[in-house]
């Protein structure tokens, strides 16, 4: 169950902020329930999905997953504004959640002179508090508390360029989509940032984070370990110190691969050395096994397995390839091939030694008894996560408005 | 111990588990049955005001490795006497078959099943006897309780 820890979820937002919850939900793909990755909008019914998600759905059935209206891949159009909105939202999310959490905690340091409100009071008031303290000097301690997730905010464009050039070695010569729309979405990203400024006070992703004001450099001793700590960082330090974690000041995390408006400035890399040819759909029933194998070989994808396996691989390859081509930040075809291999491995059915589904009432009772503890633990974990909206909180699926 | 599960599938199932637990809906629950996230057990209680009020059923949920692009397989583990459930526990429900869509999730399925219990479709029966009796709800309830007592309770 450790894996649950990585989940972020609309229910991370406190009950008192239903609109944030809803916004969080709205920026997620109805198919994979994750934030949109390369959002595509359908031409006829106007529903939005991740490119790969909707393409996989259309492989099964040529209907819109949300409304079941007839739909083909040619009716999918990129929805760049959503991509930018997701990027902006994701960048500001940890910071805002941390603000909410901090504001809900009783004050531990003089640096936080605000009168603290009880957690139940989160509301318009809380919002103001959050915004104010972000505007104040302690913004840096809040955002570095989440270095991992907010590090993108600190990236300069040159960092991003470096990431791109090191990671990307593809451009489709027949596809200029990597570059298109760049300036437009760039604006959109910035615009949504400033529109929400009283709500999501994240810095613009393109400007370096301002240094804290001089006054906050003053040191105070930590009540726990007696180490002198910068006043502005005392809360952050205490959290780590009490939890027994390293209290070393975080250095800006190395650049992570992630799409973002800053990247949109960058035309798709000029390197074309490992570009594979664009696959096209095939009428598999009309192809012999050897013909199909040759086609796969020409496309540069693995040719092992029987016809059925090759067909499945080819279908998935088209989906991955097309979704990658839709992306504003396509990955190299080499990484794409790795994803294809990982996908294929996951299709292998679980081995027989995993027990079959429960057969009898006894099994069920036994199972319930065996897992009673972990169930209670999970419920408790869910409860505390709700109380201190960490990133591992679960959600009460605000019921699919999209259904 | 189990084959590598596609990270996306695992993550989606975990987030469904979380959302299901947080939603804490009355009369439905589900939980992974082993370390393998692809097999779950569920519980379904009959909705109040229906013939199934007060009855509780166990379900087995089995997710394909390309979930949610293919529907999960859901069967009743507790014998269920119902027009659209056969004696093996197989369920006749359109959204689990041809009407499946990747936007559905465990929660929507369980809610649909709860609805199906109280609002059967006797036109396409898997259990002819139950389908015939469906129109007479008082008598239906009597037979149902008898069946439940004999088969579902130990």
List the helices and strands and how they pair.
The complex is a heterodimer of chains A (403) and B (154).
Chain A: H1 18-26, E1 39-42, E2 48-50, H2 51-60, E3 76-78, H3 80-104, H4 124-135, H5 139-145, H6 147-154, H7 157-167, H8 182-195, E4 219-221, E5 228-230, H9 234-242, H10 261-264, H11 289-299, H12 307-326, H13 333-347, H14 361-387
Antiparallel strand pairs in A: 1-2, 1-3, 4-5
Helix pairs in contact in A: 2-12, 3-4, 3-6, 3-8, 11-12, 12-13
Chain B: H1 7-23, E1 28-32, E2 39-45, E3 56-62, E4 73-76, H2 106-118, H3 128-133, H4 137-152
What does this structure look like?
Chain B: GO terms for molecular function: ATP binding; ubiquitin conjugating enzyme activity. Chain B: Keywords: Acyltransferase, ATP-binding, Nucleotide-binding, Transferase, Ubl conjugation pathway. Chain B: The active site is at residue 92. The complex is a heterodimer of chains A (403) and B (154). Chain A has 403 residues and is mainly alpha-helical. Among the domains of chain A are: 2-83, 2-Layer Sandwich (Herpes Virus-1), CATH 3.30.40.10; 131-218, no CATH class; 269-348, no CATH class. Chain A is 45% helix and 4% strand. Chain A is built from 14 helices and five strands. Chain A has helices at residues 18-26, 51-60, 80-104, 124-135, 139-145, 147-154, 157-167, 182-195, 234-242, 261-264, 289-299, 307-326, 333-347, 361-387; strands spanning 39-42, 48-50, 76-78, 219-221, 228-230. Chain A starts with 17 loop residues before the first helix and ends in a 16-residue tail after the last helix. The model of chain A is unreliable at 1-5, 109-216, 251-273, 350-359 and 388-403 (pLDDT under 50). Chain B has a four-stranded antiparallel β-sheet. Chain B has a single domain, classed as Ubiquitin Conjugating Enzyme (Roll), CATH 3.10.110.10. With 154 residues, chain B is α+β, with helices and mostly antiparallel strands. The radius of gyration of chain B is 16 Å and the shape is elongated. In chain B, a hairpin with a 6-residue loop joins strand 1 and strand 2. Helix content of chain B is 34%, strand content 15%.
């Amino acid at each position: 169950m450790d894996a649950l820890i990585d989940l972020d979820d609309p229910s991370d937002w406190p009950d008192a902020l239903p609109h944030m919850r809803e916004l969080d939900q709205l920026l997620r793909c109805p198919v994979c329930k994750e934030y949109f990755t390369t959002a595509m909008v359908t031409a006829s019914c106007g529903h939005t999905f991740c490119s790969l998600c909707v393409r996989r759905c259309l492989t099964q059935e040529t209907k819109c997953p949300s409304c079941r209206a007839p739909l083909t891949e040619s009716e999918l159009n990129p929805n760049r504004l959503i991509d930018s909105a997701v990027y902006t939202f994701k960048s500001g999310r940890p910071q805002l959640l941390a603000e909410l959490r901090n504001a809900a905690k009783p004050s531990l340091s003089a640096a936080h002179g605000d009168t603290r409100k009880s957690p139940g009071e989160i509301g318009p008031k809380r919002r103001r508090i959050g915004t104010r303290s972000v505007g104040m000097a302690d913004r840096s301690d809040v955002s570095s508390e989440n270095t991992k997730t907010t590090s993108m905010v600190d990236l300069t464009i040159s960092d991003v360029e470096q990431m791109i050039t090191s990671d990307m070695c593809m451009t489709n010569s027949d596809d200029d989509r990597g570059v298109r729309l760049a300036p437009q979405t760039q604006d959109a990203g910035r615009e949504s940032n400033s529109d929400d400024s009283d709500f999501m006070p994240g810095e613009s992703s393109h400007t370096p984070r301002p240094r804290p004001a001089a006054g906050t450099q003053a040191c105070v001793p930590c009540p726990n370990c007696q180490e002198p700590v910068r006043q502005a960082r005392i809360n952050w330090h205490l959290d780590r110190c009490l939890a027994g974690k390293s209290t070393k000041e975080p250095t800006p995390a190395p650049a992570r691969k992630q799409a973002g408006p800053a990247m949109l400035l960058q035309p798709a890399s000029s390197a074309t050395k490992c570009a594979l040819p664009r696959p096209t759909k095939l009428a598999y029933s009309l192809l012999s096994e050897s013909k199909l194998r040759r086609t796969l070989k020409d496309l540069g994808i693995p040719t092992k397995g029987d016809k059925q396996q090759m067909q499945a691989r080819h279908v998935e390859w088209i989906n991955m390839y097309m979704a990658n081509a839709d992306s504003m930040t396509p990955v190299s075809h080499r990484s794409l091939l790795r994803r294809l291999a990982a996908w294929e491995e996951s299709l292998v059915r679980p081995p027989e030694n995993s027990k079959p589904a429960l057969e009898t009432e006894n099994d069920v009772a036994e199972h319930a008894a065996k897992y009673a503890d972990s169930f209670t633990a999970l419920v408790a974990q869910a409860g505390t996560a709700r109380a201190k909206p960490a990133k591992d909180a679960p959600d009460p699926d605000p019921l699919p408005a999209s259904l | 111990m189990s084959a590598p599960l596609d990270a996306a599938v695992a993550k989606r199932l975990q987030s469904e588990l979380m959302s299901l637990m947080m939603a804490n809906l009355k009369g439905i629950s589900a939980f992974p049955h082993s370390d393998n996230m692809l097999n779950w057990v569920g519980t379904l209680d009959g909705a109040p005001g229906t013939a199934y009020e007060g009855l509780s059923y166990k379900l087995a949920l089995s997710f394909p490795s390309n979930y949610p692009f293919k529907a999960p397989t859901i069967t009743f583990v507790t014998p269920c006497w119902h027009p659209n459930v056969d004696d093996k526990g197989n369920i006749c429900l359109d959204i689990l078959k041809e009407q499946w869509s990747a936007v559905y999730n465990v929660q929507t399925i369980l809610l649909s099943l709860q609805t199906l219990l109280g609002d059967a479709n006797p036109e396409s029966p898997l259990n002819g006897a139950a389908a015939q009796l469906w129109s007479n709800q008082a008598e239906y309830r009597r037979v149902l309780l008898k069946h439940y007592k004999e088969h579902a309770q130990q």
